[in-house]
């Protein structure tokens, strides 16, 4: 083959490759129009924070999320996280001075708001602060069984328990009542947002509160939450454990 023919063949090949590469290998649906076939993958992206900030569950995934949250799979996933948390806690050598701490979030960590979200589309409806506050005032959220077990085991091991929630100070009475009715006892401190904390992202607010605990001499050995913003930031725990939650995102 002469040089002209070789050049022509090369140009044809490059043109073919260019044409192929111009077509996407896989067309993933947008968040607003996710096929139900992708809902489990969407949930994985949410849990790993690959989905980034999002406002509500895609319409085609509402039934998937409802089935996940009310079926045995959510319970089993929480059990796995609880068991891993407990295994770590048992491996910690406590100093014995009462300063080894574990920090818990409350909503979707110690208490489950699934009964509320059953009435509001499992995260499809945009969050309504008024209706959620009315739900909080009922003090009717059940305990998450895995973390109730973990909570009680941590107390037996000698950890000091701190509850760090995004709920506001005016909800203290309802929150304490709900915790007690659900089986939680003898926490060291319940930390809620004060007026000076309003407007802060959860990451900043919770980091500040953890830093305050550290300044008091506490060693935050473990932390449990359903949002990455419960766990990230600074003054983080020695080990953090995230519970599943495909219903909402809090930055």
UniProtKB/TrEMBL annotation:
It comes from Sphenostylis stenocarpa. May function as somatic storage protein during early seedling development. Keywords: Glycoprotein, Signal, Storage protein. The lineage of its organism: Eukaryota, Viridiplantae, Streptophyta, Embryophyta, Tracheophyta. Residues 1-22 form the signal peptide. One of its GO terms (molecular function) is nutrient reservoir activity. The keyword Signal applies. This is Acid phosphatase 1. NCBIfam families: plant-AP. Belongs to the APS1/VSP family. PANTHER family: ACID PHOSPHATASE-LIKE PROTEIN.
């Amino acid at each position: 083959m002469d040089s002209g023919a070789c050049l022509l063949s090369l140009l044809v090949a490059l043109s073919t490759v260019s044409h192929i590469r111009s077509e996407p290998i896989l067309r993933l649906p947008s968040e607003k129009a996710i096929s139900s076939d992708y809902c489990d993958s969407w949930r994985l992206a949410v849990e790993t924070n690959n989905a980034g900030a999002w406002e509500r569950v895609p319409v085609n995934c509402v039934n998937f999320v409802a089935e996940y949250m009310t079926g045995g799979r959510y319970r089993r996933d929480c059990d796995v996280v609880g068991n891993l948390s407990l295994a770590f806690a048992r491996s910690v050598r406590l100093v014995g001075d009462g300063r080894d701490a574990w920090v818990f979030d409350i909503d979707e960590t110690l208490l489950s708001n699934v009964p509320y979200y059953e009435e509001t589309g499992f995260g499809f409806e945009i969050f309504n602060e008024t209706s959620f506050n009315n739900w909080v005032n009922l003090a009717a959220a059940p305990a998450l069984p895995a973390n109730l077990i973990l909570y009680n085991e941590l107390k037996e091991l000698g950890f000091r328990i701190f509850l760090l929630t995004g709920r506001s100070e005016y909800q203290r009475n309802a929150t304490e009542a709900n915790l007690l009715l659900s089986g939680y006892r003898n926490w060291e401190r319940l930390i809620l947002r004060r007026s000076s904390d309003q407007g802060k992202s959860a990451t900043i607010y919770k980091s500040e509160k953890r830093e305050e605990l550290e300044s008091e001499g506490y060693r935050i050995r473990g932390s449990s939450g359903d949002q990455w913003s419960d766990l990230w930031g600074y003054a983080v725990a020695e080990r953090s454990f995230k519970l599943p939650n495909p219903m909402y995102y809090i930055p």
